[in-house]
Queue: 3 jobs
Job 1
Amino acid sequence: MAAPLELSCWGGGWGLPSVHSECLVVMAYAKFSGAPLKVNVIDNTWKGSRGDVPVLTTEDNIVSQPAKILNFLRKQKYNADYELSAKQGADTLAYIALLEEKLLPAVLHTFWVESDNYFTVTKPWFASRIPFPLSLILPGRMSKGALNRILLTRGEPPLYHLREVEAQIYRDAKECLNLLSKRLGTSQFFFGDTPSTLDAYVFGFLAPLYKVRFPKVQLQQHLKQLSNLCRFCDDILSSYFRLSLAGISPTGQDTVDANLQKLTQLVNKESNLIEKMDDNLRQSPQLPPRKLPTLKLTPAEEESDSLQRLSP
């Protein structure tokens, strides 16, 4: 009997099995290759680290990062690319590199750096799945990590300022989406009628951008104009994640959005309160510690006190 495969990942919303791109990549590949994954969704009772998800756990191995997890699954005979030619395999690597270089920075910016999206959608959603008080700290760290990752790949000469970086990454992302749309054409998947690794990566990067309801939708609007990419995401969701998403209705989604809005207000209120308390402590005058006066006894009182200690 094969060793059980357990995948720890962020949960879903907005009709998605997960709102986290890298988790979606692994989940989609497992569906395409037939890997029997048991999915453990992270919530506010989760005891492990959240910085390395998705994480694949077996009896003898712990594997993180999508590329390493997919390689591990292939070694276990779960291969979604066995029908690809050598050229198609090379094209897969080239398009994945394109996604990570051109599209991923814009996806990270949309979720974690764009302030309206971060404070109204991203931060409340993730904070609700992290135990207090870490829920007030970790989303901010994840946001800084996303910004650092963007600047690492885009914050070099001649792009010195963040606004210049933002303009460039959205231009690159739109160009990448156009190339993907042209490559997909009218096909069901990128290499014919069978999904492969490239389909898992494209789905993982596009589906959250397509489905999550953001107040700032610059890149989302461009994606929705490319109907074949939207159809591609919808087909994978309905064909491979239908059972896990059963029972989600528009009314139910409206309830989720209403609850998320209430949670947004609560998290922001708590964050503002903590920041105000911290500012008050910093601004309050710091007085040196007071020394208590030392009482001195007269010679007569000292003699009387000594006699009292010696008396039975």
Job 2
Amino acid sequence: MESLPTTTTPSKSERRWRSKPLQTSKPSLLMAFFSCLAWLYVAGRLWQDAENRTLLASLLKKNSDQRPKVLTVEDKLMLLGCKDLERRIVEAEMDLTLAKSQGYLKNRVKQSGSSSGKKLLAVIGVYTGFGSRLKRNVFRGSWMPKGDALRKLEERGVVIRFVIGRSANRGDSLDRNIDEENRMTKDFLILTLAKSILEGHEEAQEELPKKVKLFFSTAVQMWDAEFYVKIDDNIDLDLEALIGLLDRSRGQDSAYIGCMKSGEVVTEEGKPWYEPEWWKFGDGKSYFRHAAGTAFVLSKNLARYININSASLKTYAHDDTSVGSWMMGVQATYKDDNRFCCSSINQDKVCSLA
């Protein structure tokens, strides 16, 4: 009888031996893989650190080459000069503070008074231009003295001058004509010839706000007076009435006298009295209270204030509003006097439109 084929089952030890190679190969592969990653990471960091060290070394070498090894004599002198300049700035600030406490000016330039040595009552500046010679001649023949009479008026304590700047083309026929007229009449205040700390004034309509600043700055340096008066050349002045009014106002150290007004700020370019900086006057677009520019008066201290602070005082499109803005920043005493309202119908006014 044939025997059936039999299959032999592997023993337990044989099965363990056969499966063992498969179990030990996987961890080896994983270990090798992670070892490669670690080697690449370390190698990359070492390379990056080496590059950084090389870059830092080159930068340090470059900076050390540019930096001086020792402080030169020129460097020491520059350092000493800066310290000296700082010291002088501090001294100047202290002098300015002392000057303001003593009446706005200290060690000021020598001023002129009347021939009798007394302090002047007023300096009157009459605005004029290159094309206004006919008006000047009319004034000299009416309310304004001329020649010896003008000198006698100065002995009474009142100085009158036509105020004018220079032509844009310095030394041209306009300037020469004014110089010739001044040699004959001696009644001009030519701003570029005056002892002013500011630059000379260029005569032009758009420069009028700067002209008023320069006029007060110049006049307060040249003459020692109680009051400084600015008037336009389109009015007739009652000189004796003005002198009487100012004489009765002596001793008012911070007086700002004139026909006080305010009004709408013109915002549309091209219209008369246009104000380029209209947006600064708020939503109401109305000017602050100020004296009309045709004729107004500043006391000595206020004129000195303009002189000292002229470099930092802001000007607007018009001279009267510019002066009004300066007066808002000081303890000025506003005197609204309708006798300075030249267009009014008052009988006792000191001026009238020509």
Job 3
Amino acid sequence: MAAAGAPDGMEESGMDTEAETVVTEVPAQPLNCVDAEAAAGAAGEDSCDARGSLQPAPAQPPGDPAAQASVSNGEDAGGGAGKELELVDLKIIWNKTKHDVKVPLDSTGSELKQKIHSITGLPPAMQKVMYKGLVPEDKTLREIKVTSGAKIMVVGSTINDVLAVNTPKEAAQQDAKAEENKKEPLCRQKQHRKVLDKGKPEDVMPSVKGVQERLPAVPLSGMYNKSGGKVRLTFKLEQDQLWIGTKERTEKLPMGSIKNVVSEPIEGHEDYHMMAFQLGPTEASYYWVYWVPTQYVDAIKDTVLGKWQYF
């Protein structure tokens, strides 16, 4: 019966062959989709391992979701580039006219002036913009606590307004000079002689002939008015006013209300002038001042007629 099987510890030579045959003859099983993708991925990994680091990583296609997510994340990290501007409703009031506008709350005072220029035509350099005081050009509306519905007051004149005011003044001055040339000297007229005959005031300010000087920091004093009383002139440039002071009272006149200024040297005392400020439409409104030092005559005219502001 020994021939019926191999001795213990020995393998039969045909068993391996049969096993191999069995494995070989097992029919191939069809792969489902998941297995196919896994197999393809494994093959791709083996291929990449074989090629090593010599092959560069493939670039992401334009439509790759990861790339889009990266761009989106970049925008968020950039501080909200697409963030909406916070607007505030304002009422711009200029020249008795109201303009309703919307402007960004983070606009500066300088940018607000540009907006006002686009609405009114008023140049930024000639604007005074006020909200609880003068609006600083370098601060934002948010910083000065402007709220929705706030009223912004604007003061200023356009170039055309300035020219319209100055041109009649200059024309009136030229006409007055032409009339003066036709008449006898003012200082010979009876109405002026009674003042000039009193002589030069003892406390009159010194004069410098042939020289033009700026207005002094102190009032011009020691002069006479038409009634022979003492008078002084104070130029309040910050208020755009001329103060005419006498012993009895002080008249505070806006510079813009003075239509014209005329003057003439006093005969025999050419280093002093007699001067008139035209306060109304006719010569009857002249306010006369006598013994004005000649070096200040041009400065007075330029200051009152506004030339110092624009030239």
